[in-house]
Design a protein that fits this description.
Blueprint (H helix, E strand, L loop, with lengths): L1 H16 L10 H12 L3 H13 L3 E7 L10 E6 L2 H23 L5 H8 L3 H4 L3 H21 L6 H27 L5 H20 L1 H10 L4 H19 L3 H10 L5 H17 L4 H4 L2 H17 L3
Helix pairs in contact: 1-3, 3-8, 4-7, 10-11, 11-12, 11-13, 12-15, 13-15
Length: 307
């Protein structure tokens, strides 16, 4: 079921790409609605499956528009099949779009390369304008094409399939949890209340701990190793997870300062509980990408741990 759904999302992206027109790059906001309408997927479900496809090297993801809270503009991402033939065709088409749009705006004819060179210094000012978005798409397609030419071994169909199996396994708990949640009957309110009550209790315990304030004070002054020696890995993990410092924990893992397999497995179990709450916790969903990124780093660290 999970593999079938991931394939459906992938086919949806390919279907857009192969239109070879100005709508060839699906925008995340519209694409999520399309997947919801067509298959009944939730936003979290599509985000997770897109992440699986990205980490498997099945697709490439670009930022089309940056988030601007003051102007109430959400971040918009675009998705492209990680296939050299597709990228080459799309790049040629978007070069022409850029040239046509520039001529329409300025009354002057220039090649796409000349336009890119002229407009790059002004990118921050035109970011969310039609020209800014078109310029960004064109440059990213060019960059993606160079990436696949240089790093082609990581984008073979065999490599993609191997990665896809691994990524589905890593994320199956989240996706299965979402599927189960959608399939529940109207007894939704009570379980939600229990989860919230449980969350409050856990939070209260962490805050009420006599070491909590001391840890927060020392966390900016002492090294990771000193914090671990003083408070232990269990407390270190719990506080940072409670504070939603998922990116920080990933940095700690990447640095190699935490490399004992039993500690990594402990963090994996703690993160598993957090992942199960993603379905019902709206605040936690804002950290969806960071949680998945930490989970992937954990899996990698556990596989390479020799202790």
């Amino acid at each position: 079921m999970i593999r079938e759904n991931v394939d459906r999302v992938f086919r949806g992206i390919i279907g857009c790409n192969q239109r070879y027109d100005s709508y060839s790059i699906p925008h995340s906001d519209d694409f999520f609605k399309q997947m919801e309408s067509q298959y009944g997927f939730t936003k979290l479900e599509v985000e997770t499956m897109v992440s699986i496809l990205k980490e498997s090297h099945k697709i490439l993801v670009m930022e089309i528009a940056k988030e601007d809270k003051l102007k109430k503009i959400d971040k918009i991402m675009g998705y492209v099949d990680a296939d050299l033939v597709t990228l080459s065709k799309m790049k040629g088409i978007y070069y022409r779009f850029l040239e046509d749009e520039y001529e329409k705006d300025t009354g002057r004819k220039k090649t796409a390369s000349q336009i890119i060179k002229e407009l790059i210094p002004r990118m921050m000012y035109i970011n969310n304008s039609p020209m800014g978005r078109l310029l960004n798409k064109t440059m990213m397609l060019d960059e993606f094409e160079r990436l696949l030419e240089k790093d082609y071994k990581n984008y073979t169909e065999e490599s993609k399939e191997e990665n896809l199996v691994i990524q589905i396994d890593i994320n199956k708990e989240i996706l299965q949890g979402i599927i189960n949640e959608k399939g529940k009957s109207q007894k939704k309110e009570e379980p939600e209340k229990e989860k919230k009550d449980e969350k409050k209790i856990v939070k209260k315990r962490a805050v009420d701990s006599p070491q909590y304030g001391e840890f927060l004070e020392n966390s900016s002054k002492k090294s990771v190793q000193k914090l671990l020696n003083i408070y232990g890995v269990d407390f270190f993990f719990r506080v940072n997870l409670r504070k939603k410092k998922f990116s920080y924990l990933k940095e700690v893992l990447s640095s190699g300062e935490l490399d004992r397999k039993k500690d990594l497995i402990l963090l994996k179990e703690m993160l598993k509980k957090i992942k199960s709450n993603l379905i019902i916790d709206k605040d936690l969903q804002e950290y969806h990408e960071e949680i998945l990124s930490l989970d992937r780093e954990l899996s990698r660290a556990i596989n390479f741990s020799k202790k």
